[in-house]
Amino acid sequence: MKQAIHPNNEDTQPTLYLAFELSNQDWKLGFTIGRGQPPRQRKISAGDTTALKQEIVLAKQRFSLPADAPVVSCYEAGRDGFWLHRFLEHEHVTNLVVDSASIEVSRRGKHTKTDRLDVEKLLTMLLRYHGGESRVWSVVQVPSLAAEDQRHLHRQLLALKAERTRYGNRIKGLLVGQGIHLDVDGDFLTHLSALRLWDGAPLPDGLTARLRREFTGWQFAHQQSQELETERRTATPLRCRDGADVSSPGNAGRSRGPTPAATPPAAQPPQRTAL
Predict the structure, then answer these.
(1) What is the reported pTM?
(2) Which end of the chain has a smaller Cβ tally under 10 Å, C or N?
(3) Which residue, 109, 124, 142, sits at the end of a domain?
(4) What does the pLDDT read at residue 241?
């Protein structure tokens, strides 16, 4: 998917720029047509695509743009994922999903940004990027819906393995508290009844009951992880256009990194918005 956007110049059609500040409850929208132009800011309910389309129409009217003027937008990668990007692309809006960790701010030097930018600052950076300053941030490579879906198996496998480790560590901790060292595996219950305290007494009933409950959780996570391992071995990995396997989160959705400063974003014919 090409996400480079053409540099602005006098011969191109006037463009409407849109930046999103996303949150759980509402979205802040910032519109402008270029530097030096005070931004139009609006707030809509989170996920309200109907209101979003209407605000784009109103913004074009506010800036005296034709209805078919191209729209370029951006938002920071986060919990909203890529559905908004796909919606915008469907509506013929050229959108960029920005890697937040790649954005630098100046406070007596450069520091990696740790909090979300406000919509006005994000809009300013979008104008800079569109004007050719490709190093202001890195753009996330948005995976296809099929590639993103295939990543769920790998992510769930990692989560189950971590959960199994937590159960195992809790069991070991409970036993070490009684001076007992025992590895946790599929045969744990066969050894449990034979365990003894320092004085040869059997384990207290409450401790034994808790160990059984913890091991039930360990068994479930272990069984699920084994099933997913089998499914992963038999699955056919999807690949990017460059041949890289995107079934791993290390590839799909990765940042493309900043374009070298000497190479501005590739020029493309302006896309016309259907909004």
Answers:
(1) 0.64
(2) N
(3) 142
(4) 45
